[in-house]
Each structure stands twice: as C-alpha cells, then as structure tokens.
Amino acid sequence: MRTGWNGRMHCRWIGVTTLVALSGIAVAGSVSENAASARTAFERFRALEGTWRGESTRGWSEEVSFRPIAGGSAVMETSFDAHPNETMVTMFFLDGESLDLIHYCVAKNQPHLKASAYEDGGKTVTFVFVDGGNLTSRDKGHMDKAVFRFEDADHLTTRWTWYQDGTEKWMEDIRLTRKR
C-alpha cells in the first residue's frame, strides 16, 4: 500500500519547509534591522536637547527646544512662533520596534506619524501619517508627512507636508541651528 509519502514528496516537503524557514529568518532580520534604525534615530532626537533657532524657506523664524522627558522614553519638541504667538509640541517616542511622533498642531488636531524610512545611515528619517486625534476623516487638513535631515550636531532640516481633501502639499523646509 502506498501512502504517497515517497522520496519525491519528501524532497518537496523539505524544500518547502526550508523556504518557509528562510523567509522567516529574512523577515526577522528586517524587523530587527528596522528596530535598530528606530533606536539609532531616537538617540539622534535625544541628542538634540537644547534650544534652537528655526528659519523657514517661507521667511518666518521660530524658537524650538528639544527635551527628553519621562525618564528618557520620549523627546518633546516645543515650537514657538511658527504661527504668531502660538506654541506647538511634537512628541517623539519608540513604540515597540518603531519610531513614532505625535504632533500637537495649531490646526487643533494631533496627527500620529510613524517612521517609514531611514536613509543616509540614519541621518534622514521620513515619517508618514498613521492616524490622529480630532480628525474626523483623512481628508480633514493635517500634517501628513515629515522628513528630518540631521546635518551635524548643530544643524537639522525638517520638511512637513499638509494633506487635505485628497491632496498632499509640501509646506516648506525649516533649517534649525542650535543656539549656543
């Protein structure tokens, strides 16, 4: 009586099992690589501690401060005067193996973005929209994407996009210089 478990089936089974195991290793490797990139980028944000001067490509300036809080588990960025006499806050934090931010915006909403790309050895971090507070729909105007480029210990450039009614627009670049 034949059960169908001959040499050929056995080889196929081993081949499939090996392929599944290797793909699991590849996924695990990319997950841990992403986690390492997230941790490295978070440390870059922690190293920004201090006061900065921001200059926008649209001609306005702001005062920005970065401060690790909650036992170093989050970094709070406070921006004053990007909008006249208004303060906005952005919180950066690790969520498991990802780096996230929540931006408390003058638009009276709180978009939540997640780092989706780490480039230039982690010197450029791109965050994309996940969800947000006080957003009744995706089409309600909100900050949707942010790119942070770490130039050196004293210079950082940020670029934010605004998303509304199905359209994304680059807002401007803001170059931050550490105040000494």
- CATH top level is Mainly Beta
Q: Helix coverage percent of residues? A: 10-25%
Q: How many helix segments?
A: 1
Q: Which regions have little confidence, pLDDT < 50, spanning 5+ residues?
A: 13-29
Number of DSSP-assigned strands: 10
Question: What can be said about the biggest beta sheet?
Answer: 10 strands, antiparallel, barrel
Overall body shape? globular
What does the model show?
The protein is α+β, with helices and mostly antiparallel strands and about 180 residues long. It has one domain: Calycin beta-barrel core domain (Lipocalin). Helices cover about 20% and strands about 50% of the residues. It contains 1 helix and 10 strands. It has one helix at about 5-45; strands at about 50-55, 60-70, 75-80, 85-95, 100-105, 110-120, 125-135, 140-150, 155-165, 165-180. A 10-stranded antiparallel β-barrel has the order 1-2-3-4-5-6-7-8-9-10. A hairpin with a 2-residue loop joins strand 8 and strand 9. The longest helix has about 40 residues, at about 5-45. The model is unreliable at about 15-30 (pLDDT under 50).
